[in-house]
Design goal:
Elements lengths: L3 H16 L5 H8 L7 H13 L3 E2 L6 E2 L1 H12 L1 H8 L9 H12 L4 H14 L15 E6 L16 E3 H11 L3 E5 L5 H8 L8 E6 L2 H4 L3 H14 L2 E6 L1 E2 L2 E2 L4 E3 L4 E4 L5 H5 L3 E6 L2 H17 L1 E2 L1
Parallel strand pairs: 3-4, 5-6, 6-7
Antiparallel strand pairs: 1-2, 3-12, 5-10, 7-13, 8-9, 10-11, 11-12
Helix pairs in contact: 1-3, 1-4, 1-5, 2-3, 9-11
Length: 307
C-alpha cells in the first residue's frame, strides 16, 4: 500500500505527464511506469482521483491539465521535502500521518486554501486503511489473494476489503505492472482458462515466458499446445513455453511475475481452480521479494525444454 505522501507525489506526476502531452491513460501509464518504484496498477488507481479533484479533465485520449491541476503540481513541487517525509515515515522522529499533514497544511493553508482542502480530502480518501497510530506505513503492497467458491458463501468478507483481493484481480494487477516481461509458472494449464484470465489485459508490448509440467494437456495433446501458442502469438509481443518434468521433479509453483510485482498462489490455471476450489496466495510489490522470485523462477526456466 502506498503511503499518503507517495500518492500525493504520484498525483502530481500524473498531472505533469498529462501536461507534457500524454493525453491517454495508456500513455500516462507507459510514461510513469519507467520510474523504479511506480506500478501500472498504482497509476491506474490514481488517475481517477486526479479527475475527481479536477486536476485533469477530458476523455481518455484527450486528457488535459486544469488550472487547479497546475496549482496543485506547483504546490507539491514546492513542498517536496515535506512530501518525502510523508512518503517515508520510517525515520526515528516518526510522527503520525495526521500530524505531518497538519504541519504541512499549517504552512500553506492561508496561501492556497483550496489546495489545502484538497490535500485533506485526498488524505481522507487514500489513507482510510492506514492506521493513525505511530506505525510505519510501507510503500509497497502486500495483500492476500483468494478464490472463494460460491458454495462457501458470498465471496471475500466485506471486513477484509483492502487487504484481500480476488485471485483473478491479482493476475490482472501483475500483468498491468509488467513493462517488458511476464513470467508464469504453473504445473497445469488449460488454454481456455489461460485465455479467460489474460484476454482482457493489454499485453501487446510485453513478452510472456511460461514454465509448466503439464504433460497430459500440452505435450500429449498437440492441439491444446497449439491453442495456447495461438493465443500467446495474438496477444503478446513474443512468447516462449518451457516444459520441465524429470524423474521426481516438476515445476509445481504457481507464480505470476512482472518486473515490479508477484502473485504467488495455490491456484493452477484450470477451471476448477478459478470457480470451484478455495485457493489462497499473496500479491506483493515488495522489491526484495520480487527480485528473489525473479532469480528463482528464471533459474527453473533455464532448466526447462522449449516446446
Amino acid at each position: 500500500m502506498l503511503g499518503i505522501g507517495s500518492k500525493i507525489s504520484l498525483i502530481a506526476d500524473v498531472i505533469r505527464s498529462v501536461n507534457s502531452g500524454k493525453n491517454s491513460l495508456e500513455e500516462v501509464v507507459e510514461d510513469l511506469a519507467k520510474q523504479p518504484l511506480v506500478l501500472g496498477s498504482d497509476i491506474e488507481s490514481i488517475v481517477p482521483l486526479a479527475r475527481k479533484f479536477a486536476f485533469i479533465e477530458g476523455e481518455d485520449g484527450d486528457l488535459c491539465i486544469t488550472k487547479q491541476g497546475l496549482e496543485f503540481m506547483k504546490y507539491v513541487d514546492a513542498t517536496s521535502r515535506e512530501t518525502s517525509e510523508l512518503a517515508s515515515p520510517m525515520e526515528e522522529n516518526y510522527r503520525t500521518l495526521d500530524k505531518l499533514i497538519m504541519d504541512v497544511g499549517a504552512k500553506y493553508e492561508k496561501e492556497n486554501k483550496q489546495v489545502f482542502d484538497d490535500i485533506q480530502e485526498i488524505r481522507r480518501l487514500t489513507s482510510k486503511h492506514i492506521s493513525n497510530a505511530p506505525e510505519a506505513a510501507s510503500d509497497y503492497e502486500l495483500m492476500l489473494t483468494a478464490t472463494m467458491p460460491q458454495g462457501l458463501g458470498k465471496g471475500i468478507p466485506l471486513q477484509l476489503s483492502g487487504s484481500v483481493i480476488n485471485h483473478d484481480e491479482a493476475i490482472r494487477k501483475v500483468i498491468k505492472d509488467a513493462r517488458r516481461e511476464l513470467y508464469i509458472s504453473a504445473p497445469y494449464i488449460e488454454p481456455e482458462t489461460f485465455r479467460m484470465l489474460v484476454g482482457n489485459c493489454v499485453t501487446g508490448k510485453i513478452s510472456c515466458k511460461i514454465i509448466t509440467s503439464d504433460k497430459d494437456r500440452l505435450v500429449d495433446k498437440p492441439y491444446k499446445l497449439k491453442q495456447l501458442k495461438t493465443f500467446l502469438g495474438s496477444h503478446f509481443l513474443d512468447s516462449k513455453i518451457h516444459f520441465l518434468k524429470r524423474e521426481n521433479v516438476i515445476a509445481h509453483a504457481k507464480v505470476w511475475l512482472s518486473e515490479k510485482s508477484v502473485h504467488i498462489t495455490s491456484a493452477n490455471i484450470l477451471t476448477n481452480s478459478q470457480v470451484e476450489n478455495f485457493e489462497l496466495g499473496i500479491y506483493s510489490t515488495n522489491a526484495s521479494l520480487v527480485s528473489a522470485c525473479q532469480i528463482l523462477v528464471n533459474k527453473v526456466w533455464e532448466q526447462g525444454t522449449k516446446i
